[in-house]
């Protein structure tokens, strides 16, 4: 029987030997980097070892391992960095290697869980995982610099090029992931249980159905919640009016856009019967109000307001990602995200979205520098960028851990509505 990607996880002795050899090489190189104080090399080596050990730990077998070709690809950036001529080139090579690690991790998820992904979705997932890995490295290095007083991350521009390199190579790795499976036409992107492992070993129920709605969980009545929504809307109307009187187009645009967002739940509830209760509507309205008042007055005068609004925004982004994947899961046979992976997907989705957003702001800055034009988005230095990513991650973890239950009725209603329209049936 021909060797396939999934069969490599099923205890091939030669594959396991080669994979363990690669892990040993990484451990030696990583240990040497630790002694030399090379932070990025240590982070990369630790990530390679963690990813490579997942099959052996999950399947409780020393012979369970990634295909050795994939393991070897993850080692190449570390070896290349060891001979890179400059500190900057070493950093760039390592961050570019995030794509290979993302490919390996995605392959493991396919082999060890009941996930199913259409190929274009798999490419997107590899890209998001690569961006998230790079963001985690950058956050860890930034925090190390703050604690140790070092400057491993020299500037915001340097960090953005590193994150961009990881994102581009992640996209390339996703395409390679797709091409890799095309060599095995009978091998679907879905798990095949290993001998001796029960099929339901990885099918863990999420346990989020049947929870009280957010409206009922809040310590105020639904009528009071609706009243607060109206108060916040009037506040944003006042901001629009002030901006119009003072001819401040930035205030007008920001406040008006945020005000428009607050009416989206109402529109969806009345027109399409999507059950946005008053608690969810208040949550959305509060988040956009915080952004509106920040743009209106606070952002330029207080650093902490920015750190409050980013995790709040991350909860909304995570909610959108959760609803999207649940709806796709229900309507596409080729897509299935097991409940135990849903929180992790939400976190990766939010962190990756934050990285893409920062790259977009960086692009605006480059255009502004070259043209002298004023751009709608801009970055304000290394600490600003890294704190944005850090607080995005915090917001993602909060909504993934505690917020998904409150979105169940909304996702079910969206699914039913799209089913009636037959929009996603394939």
Question: What would the keywords be for this entry?
Answer:
mainly alpha, 426 residues, 2 domains, single chain
Description of the structure:
This protein is mostly helical. It has 2 domains: 7-193, no CATH class; 214-421, no CATH class. The protein contains 16 helices and no strands. It has helices at 13-36, 39-59, 68-82, 87-96, 98-112, 119-148, 156-182, 214-217, 222-245, 249-262, 264-272, 278-298, 303-331, 342-371, 382-403, 408-421. Helix 2 runs antiparallel to helix 3, helix 4 runs parallel beside helix 7 and helix 14 (342-371) packs antiparallel against helix 15. The longest helix has 30 residues, at 119-148. The protein is globular, with a radius of gyration of 24 Å.
What Rg do the Cα atoms give? 24 Å
Low-pLDDT runs:
186-208
**Helical segment count:** 16
In angstroms, what separates the terminal alpha carbons? 32 Å
| Overall 3D form | globular
Mean pLDDT: 81
Count of discrete structural domains: 2
Strand composition percent: under 5%
The largest sheet is: none
Helix-strand pattern:
HHHHHHHHHHHHHHHH
Q: What is the percent of helical residues?
A: over 70%
How would you classify the helix and strand content by structural class? Answer: mainly alpha
The count of strands amounts to 0
Keywords: Membrane, Transmembrane, Transmembrane helix
Organism: Natrarchaeobius chitinivorans
Transmembrane segments: 16-35, 41-59, 66-88, 94-113, 120-140, 160-181, 251-268, 280-299, 311-329, 341-360
Protein name: DUF2238 domain-containing protein
């Amino acid at each position: 029987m021909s060797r396939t990607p999934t069969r490599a996880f099923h205890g091939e002795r030669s594959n396991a030997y080669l994979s363990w050899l690669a892990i040993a090489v990484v451990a030696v190189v990583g240990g040497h980097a630790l002694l030399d104080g090379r932070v990025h090399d240590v982070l990369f080596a630790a990530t390679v070892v963690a990813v490579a050990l997942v099959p052996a730990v999950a399947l409780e077998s020393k012979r369970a391992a990634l295909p050795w070709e994939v393991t070897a690809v993850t080692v190449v950036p570390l070896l290349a960095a060891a001979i890179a001529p400059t500190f900057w080139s070493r950093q760039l090579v390592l961050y570019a290697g995030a794509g290979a690690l993302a490919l390996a991790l995605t392959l493991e998820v396919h082999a060890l869980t009941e996930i199913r992904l259409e190929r274009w979705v798999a490419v997107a997932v590899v890209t998001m995982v690569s961006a998230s890995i790079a963001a985690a490295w950058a956050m860890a290095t930034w925090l190390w610099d703050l604690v140790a007083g070092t400057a491993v991350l020299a500037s915001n521009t340097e960090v953005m090029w590193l994150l961009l390199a990881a994102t581009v190579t992640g996209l390339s790795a996703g395409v390679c992931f797709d091409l890799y499976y095309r060599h095995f036409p009978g091998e679907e992107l879905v798990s095949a249980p290993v001998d001796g492992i029960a099929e339901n070993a990885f099918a863990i129920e999420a346990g989020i159905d049947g929870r009280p709605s957010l409206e009922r969980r809040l310590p105020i009545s639904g009528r009071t919640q609706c009243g607060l929504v109206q108060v916040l809307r009037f506040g944003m109307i006042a901001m629009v009016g002030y901006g119009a009187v003072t001819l401040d187009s930035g205030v007008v645009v920001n406040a008006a856009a945020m005000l428009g967002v607050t009416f989206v739940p109402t529109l969806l509830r009345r027109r399409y019967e999507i059950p946005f209760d008053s608690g969810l509507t208040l949550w959305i309205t509060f988040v956009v109000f915080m952004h509106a008042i920040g743009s209106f007055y606070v952002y330029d005068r207080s650093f902490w307001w920015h750190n409050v609004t980013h995790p709040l925004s991350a909860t909304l982004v995570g909610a959108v990602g959760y609803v999207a994947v649940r709806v796709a899961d229900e309507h596409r046979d080729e897509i299935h995200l097991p409940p135990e992976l849903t929180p992790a997907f939400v976190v990766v989705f939010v962190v990756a979205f934050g990285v893409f957003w920062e790259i977009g702001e960086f692009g605006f800055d480059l255009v502004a520098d070259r043209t002298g034009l004023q751009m709608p988005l801009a970055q304000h230095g290394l600490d600003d960028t890294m704190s944005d990513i850090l607080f995005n991650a915090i917001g993602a973890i909060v909504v993934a851990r505690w917020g998904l239950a409150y979105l169940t009725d909304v996702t079910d209603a969206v699914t039913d509505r799209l089913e009636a329209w037959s929009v996603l049936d394939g």
